[in-house]
UniProtKB/TrEMBL annotation:
Protein's name in the database: CUE domain-containing protein
Domain spans labelled CUE: 22-65
Record flagged with keyword Coiled coil: yes
Keyword Oxidoreductase found: no
Coiled-coil region list: 152-217
GO molecular function: ubiquitin binding
Keyword line: Coiled coil
Length: 298
């Protein structure tokens, strides 16, 4: 009973998968495994193998290897990478045929993976696979060296450019520092001149104030002189006491009277008036000038 059940189970499992007798499934599987081959070639191979998909796969694989070997022998020495001298003849009793390599090296990692896969699939035996892997690795090494050399050269040129820019910036910085120092000196000189100009303006203001004071004094003296000239009773005559006091350089009578009474109120007016009137070519009477020619003013 158990044997019958097991047999039925085996029959059920086998029937659950498409059998090689299913021509449609077998052809689709061959197309998926060999997309680079012609569909008619796949159908013919499948017919020759009696719709046995496993036999058809082996036959197509051998056919692919033969076509690859023929293409490799046709390319020969025109390929970019040469096979090792031991591979030109017979190695371990098995013939090793050269395989063509791509003229341009791959660019990215996916291209390198495809290259290795193609080389391994195209290998006819272990020795051929080793030779192909060696050539691919040499190509990879050469590509890496060229890329590193190119990048190093580019970095060196960029470094030189950066150094030149740095030198230019240093020179420009020194020029700017010098310009700032000159500008600072000029600013300091301008401030000093401004301070000096301010001091000169203050001095001018003081001199102008003194000039106004002198003008007022001059006007006052002029008015006193006019009043003295208008009030003189005997023009052209000096009082004898004034003449005698001037000759002997003694105090006049009025000064003596003032000294006796300790009245010096007239001295400031006498001093300022005398400093101006003593240079005038006029003759004043005794009543207006006797106090200016005393000994204390001569």
């Amino acid at each position: 009973m158990s044997a019958v059940v097991c047999g039925e189970k085996i029959i059920f499992l086998r029937g659950s998968y498409p059998t090689p007798s299913s021509r449609f499934f077998a052809l689709d599987r061959l197309i998926a495994l060999f997309p680079d081959m012609d569909k008619q070639l796949l159908e013919r191979t499948l017919n020759e193998c009696g719709d046995d998909i496993e036999t058809a796969i082996k036959s197509l694989t051998e056919l692919r290897l033969v076509s690859v070997e023929q293409a490799a022998s046709a390319v020969g020495k025109e390929s970019e990478y040469q096979i090792h001298p031991n591979a030109n003849g017979v190695t371990n009793g098995e013939a090793v045929v050269e395989n063509s390599s791509p003229q341009k090296p791959p660019v990215d990692g996916a291209d390198w993976v495809d290259l290795f896969v193609r080389e391994m699939v195209s290998a006819s035996n272990i020795d051929d696979a080793r030779i192909r892997a060696s050539r691919a690795l040499e190509l990879l090494e050469k590509s890496i060296c060229e890329r590193v050399t190119s990048e190093a050269h580019g970095l060196q040129q960029e470094n030189m450019m950066m150094k030149e820019q740095l030198q230019a910036l240093i020179q420009e910085n020194s020029l700017l520092k010098r310009a700032v120092a000159i500008q600072h000196e000029r600013q300091k000189e301008f401030e000093d001149r401004g301070q000096e100009l301010h001091n000169l303006k203050q001095m001018v203001s003081q001199y102008q104030e003194q000039l106004r004071t002198l003008e007022v004094n001059n006007y006052s003296l002029t008015m006193h002189l006019k009043q003295a000239q208008q009030g003189s009773s005997i023009p052209g005559r000096f009082h004898p006491d004034l003449k005698q006091a001037s000759d002997r350089k003694q105090d006049c009578w009025h000064c003596q009277q003032r000294r006796r009474t300790n009245d010096y109120h007239h001295f400031p007016f006498c001093i300022h008036l005398f400093s101006t009137l003593k240079q005038l070519p006029v003759v004043l009477p005794y009543s207006s000038i006797d106090l200016r020619f005393c000994r204390c003013h001569l």
